[in-house]
Structures are given as C-alpha cells and as structure tokens.
Design goal:
Blueprint: E1 6-9, E2 16-20, E3 26-31, E4 38-43, E5 49-53, E6 58-62, E7 69-74, E8 84-86, E9 92-98, E10 103-109, E11 115-122, E12 125-130, E13 136-141, E14 146-152, E15 158-166, E16 175-177, E17 183-187, E18 192-196, E19 202-207, E20 213-219, E21 225-230, E22 235-240, H1 246-252
Antiparallel strand pairs: 1-2, 2-3, 4-5, 5-6, 6-7, 8-9, 9-10, 10-11, 12-13, 13-14, 14-15, 16-17, 17-18, 18-19, 20-21, 21-22
C-alpha cells in the first residue's frame, strides 16, 4: 500500500489476508467472510484493496480504514478469478484459469462492478498487468508459457492480441510492471523472476532463493523493493531494483 506495507493472502491460515510492515512485523489484517478465499490483490489510488476471490467467483473490495469487506463484482461464469491488474483510471482486469482443462478467460471489471468477458479461448491465464501508461494489457499463460500483450481500447476493451514472449520451460505466476514499462514475471519451478523489456527481450533473471515463487509486488518507502512470495519455503523474499513499480509511482503523483 501507500505506506509500504505488504499484503498476502492465506496468511497463517486460509481465508485471511496478512499485513507485513516495512520493519518486518506481521499480523492478520482481515479474515474474509463466508467461504471466500483470496488470491490476487491490488490497490486503487484511494488506497482501497481489491481481492480476487476464487472460491466465490467474486472480486472483493476492502476499506483499509474500517477493514469492511464488500462484493464489488460477482460473476458465475468465472472459473476462478485468479489475479488482478488495475489501470490508471481504476478499471480492473482479472485472469481466470481453468487448471483442469488448461484453458482460461480474461475479464474486465468496471469501477461500478460491471463485469465483461474480454477473451474466452486462452490458455491457463494467470499473471496480468497494465502498462504504466494504461495502453497495454499483459497476460501470461502458466501451462503454455506464453506472455501475451493486448492494446487497451478507449472503452476499456482489448484488441490486437500478439505474443510478447514464449519460454521453453517452467511455469508462470504473478506479473508487475516497473515505471519504465519493464515486466517482472515469477517463473514458478525455476525459482527466478524474469525481467522483460516492453519489446519482450529478457533483460535478466533474479534468483529468489526457492523454486516456487508465486506472486510479487513493488513496495518499500521508495517503491524500489520487490517482494516475492515463495511457496517452497513459505516465506517472503525481497530484492532491490533501480526503478520503482508502476503502481507505486501512480500513488505518488
């Protein structure tokens, strides 16, 4: 969030969201209601939290002050909303994989909760991200190991799908852009974060001290610390970068 706190789903137990401060102190921030279980988390400019609830087929919104949880959008046609991206104007995008069928969908969620399916014939959609200028949407497919890019249209729709990069091995999970538009992708099974240029060139790969990195975000007081949830050892790993995250710079403007 704006203060540099890190939030992670299923902290200590299912249905929770945990908060870790920049000093390393952790607590359960909120327990989700009913049968909801969170996955991807995003924040808007106002500091409100959005959570992909893959059990309830919901996108939840959480007030950071009161910690009240509400359903922003419910869509029964979703397989299991997995990860979220947020555009500069507050529009949300959700990946929606069907792991058994190795297929996936892509959804748009407007600020009023209106839900629109943008693509229904993709592979196992997982990580999703919007470019810093709000003009591109990136989506990766974990099983097929593709990274796709779409052009975001004025109405929030997408067009001109094209392959940005395909990898020969291992899987994908979360993705985030830095302020220069470079794309950071967790490579599940390889134990690295790959950094891609906006043109799809692999700039470098960073070892995250465990084979199964799941998601990541930029944070810290200057937005230049990358935090990675690493499943193999059940820990939060961090490394420093030169360029802050795209979402962090939006908060600062």
């Amino acid at each position: 969030d704006r203060a540099g706190n890190i939030f992670a789903v299923n902290f200590a137990q299912q249905q929770t969201i945990g908060r870790t401060t920049p000093a390393g102190q952790s607590e359960v921030f909120v327990t989700l209601p009913n049968d909801s279980v969170g996955n991807g988390i995003r924040f808007d400019r106002a500091g409100r939290m959005y959570v992909a609830d893959y059990v309830g087929h919901n996108v939840l919104r959480i007030d950071p002050g009161t910690r009240a949880v509400e359903v922003l959008a419910h869509e029964p046609k979703m397989n299991q909303p997995n990860d979220l991206a947020i555009a500069p104007n507050g529009t949300l995008y959700a990946s929606d994989p069907n792991w058994g069928a190795k297929t996936g969908q892509l959804w748009r969620i407007d600020p009023d909760g209106t839900t629109t399916r943008l693509a229904a014939d993709m592979g196992t959609t997982n990580g999703v991200e919007v470019s810093p200028d709000g003009k591109r949407l990136y989506v990766n497919e974990s099983v097929q190991r593709n990274v796709w890019v779409f052009d975001i249209q004025p109405d929030g729709g997408v067009a001109n799908k094209r392959l940005l990069r395909q990898f020969p091995d291992h899987g994908f999970d979360g993705m985030r852009c830095d302020a220069d538009g470079n794309l950071y992708i967790t490579r599940y099974g390889k134990g690295t974060v790959a950094v891609l240029s906006p043109e799809g060139e692999v700039l470098r790969e960073i070892n995250v001290l465990g084979a199964r990195p799941s998601n990541l975000c930029f944070g810290g007081l200057d937005g230049r610390t990358v935090y990675v949830t690493e499943v193999e050892h059940r820990r939060l790993v961090q490394f420093r970068v030169e360029t802050p995250g795209a979402a962090w710079t939006r908060w600062e403007r």
